[in-house]
Design goal:
The structure is a single chain. This protein is globular. The strands form two sheets. A two-stranded parallel ribbon has the order 1-4. A two-stranded antiparallel ribbon has the order 2-3. The chain has a single domain (19-152), classed as Winged helix-like DNA-binding domain superfamily/Winged helix DNA-binding domain (Arc Repressor Mutant, subunit A, Orthogonal Bundle). Helices cover 36% and strands 9% of the residues. It contains six helices and four strands. The termini are far apart. This is Transcriptional regulator. Keywords: DNA-binding, Transcription, Transcription regulation.
Length: 171
């Protein structure tokens, strides 16, 4: 059973998914290389060559994704210089990028459960206690929810962005 669509959203044929936040998010992180770069940044990779080598992508693809993720605000450039070398940039997660970590862990947990035969190659744990970490859907009061317990309703405070005026064309 799906989530409960509430109010005007209950009739799926009566509204469109324009301005969907998932679409906007996928425009930024919806490629394999973008997600893998973010995974590597969470693991502590900061140098250009480290991203390209660990992910197994070309330098050109790494440069393109690092530029896109930096322009989107998920990564920030930070200058560094090794002894005798020129100043270069390394890439570090911004707060916006760090907030994607639960998404990455959730995808990995799903892959562990359904694509790895239930045996995870890695365990995410609390560093100090060793207690396993997992991602789940919870209310603000801490209750765990299943898909069928979630309701979706319009946010009355949200307003669609105004469209920019289109230039007039002359025949």
């Amino acid at each position: 059973m799906p989530v409960v669509m509430e109010g005007a959203l209950a009739d799926l044929g009566a509204w469109k998914t324009d301005h969907c936040s998932l679409v906007k998010a996928l425009e930024v992180v919806g490629t394999r290389s973008a997600l893998l770069i973010l995974r590597e940044a969470c693991y502590g990779t900061t140098r250009f060559s480290g991203f390209a080598d660990r992910i197994g992508i070309t330098d050109r693809a790494a440069a393109q994704q690092l530029r896109r993720l930096t322009e989107a605000g998920l990564l920030a450039k930070r200058p560094y210089r090794e002894d005798g070398g020129r100043t270069r940039d390394e890439y570090v997660l911004t707060d916006m990028g760090r907030e994607l970590f639960p998404v990455i862990v959730a995808l990995m947990q799903w892959g562990d459960r359904h694509l790895q035969g239930g045996t995870a190659p890695l365990h995410y744990v609390d560093h100090e206690t060793g207690v396993p970490v997992h991602v789940e859907l919870r209310t603000e009061t801490g209750d765990t929810l299943e898909l069928e317990q979630v309701g979706i309703r319009r946010n009355p405070a949200w307003r669609a962005p105004k469209r920019a005026p289109q230039p007039e064309t002359t025949p």
